[in-house]
Amino acid sequence: MRERTWPLETLKKYLVIPSVSAQGTGIKEACRFLKTLFTSLGLTAKVIDCGGNPICYAELIVNKKLPTILFYNHYDVQPPEPLEKWISPPFKPTVRGGKLFARGSSDNKGNLIARIAAVKSFLDTCPTVRPDEPFGRGHPRQNDSVGLAVRREGEKPPVNVKFVVDGEEEIGSPTLPRFISKYREMIKADMCIWESGGRDEKDNPDLALGCKGICHAELVARGAKDDLHSSKGVIVKNPAWRLIWALNSLKDSNENILIDGFYNRVRKPGSLDRKTIAKFMFYEKEKKKEWGINSFLAGLTGLKLKERFFYEPALNIDGLTSGYQGKGHKTVLPKQASAKIDFRLVPDMTPKDVLNRLRKHLDRYGFSDIEIHDFRGYPPARTPLTSPYVNIISKAQERVYKKPVMVEPLFAASGPMYLFTPLMPCFSLGVGYSGSSIHAPNENIRLTDYWMGIECIKEIMNELAMPAGR
Length: 470
Ligand SMILES: [Zn+2]
Description:
The chain is built from twelve helices and 21 strands. It is α/β, with parallel strands linked by helices. The protein has two domains: 2-209 and 383-469, Aminopeptidase, CATH 3.40.630; 214-266 and 312-378, Alpha-Beta Plaits (2-Layer Sandwich). The model is unreliable at 126-154 (pLDDT under 50). Residues 78, 107, 170, 438-439 line the site of zinc ion.
């Protein structure tokens, strides 16, 4: 089990760092940790400052003629709150029942260390080296010159590898566009393995070829200059009502988004898309049980439900705030009401177009007093289903997991993949599973998935190196 000590111990050390981008903690520490880790394994690593949280970049160029994989990951994690819901503390990695619990175990630190462990396995060839001492005296990099631990020829990684580790993914990657435009040449690769993914309710591995875009905003309605006695509500505007009426105008009870032209840019699924999602297993019964719901929106099931999940945009209310929400009752006319909303976008929608249409809609329906604040987001991304790498990667996954691969044409969540897909095809897969509780208390991965995830990356690297696989 020695070969398992390093990946687990290294991951635990990484998980201890509370690198919460939303709260600005542990950022420097995480960068330092990663740079030391990459360097200790013999990769060239640097911490690059583009204005926001730095990006950690590392590479190992074995031979320029070999194919190159770029791994995109992020070292930042979501806030751990509510803390009282955690069985063990979020930044104290704990193994229970074959699972490793910690904030970031699945999203996204487990994936990064699994990928690094796969690269390391090609570098570890000397039996005299204790693999559980990555930074210690026995490391092959340190012993090459004295002949104690010489790496055998032909056992270097079979492909070149590059790592981009973002520090702001959980807050929308605001500085990543600057990094990509400045370092476009440096990050050049044949394909990109995206940050995350995992196994479904029946343990089939996923392979996602794109992701939805997202934009979010805060809608604000204002009333009197201060909160008033609620008796004034008979003659003074209540911003909570204004906000509710405005929100009501955006969507009907059949879940149709009513913003004029909202669906104009939605690309309809083609025949290959339809074939792919027909094969995709969407375990409705299990999902309903896990989420504690009786039915899906609009009573959809089967192919229609899958089509909606992958190919339709959404408008969601994340939170509503106004007036008094405390214990007991308070008769008050609030001075302000606000709602946080998000849109999930599908190809070929853009955040800019959505913002324009939202503003026009509010004005047209008599809500020009509703303010739109903090509108931010990014567009969706697609890797074509016809990419030859789909076959290469799914073959490698099938060999490791011995289960059919569930190809998702579009991941229903979002990430800044649109910055990469114009440069190379991107593929999401990883060490998570349907019970990983990402962004929630008790985030975890199953250790078996972790070991298989490492094997899977090794298989993909081997598969890519084969001339027939290119
Ligand atoms: Zn996340």
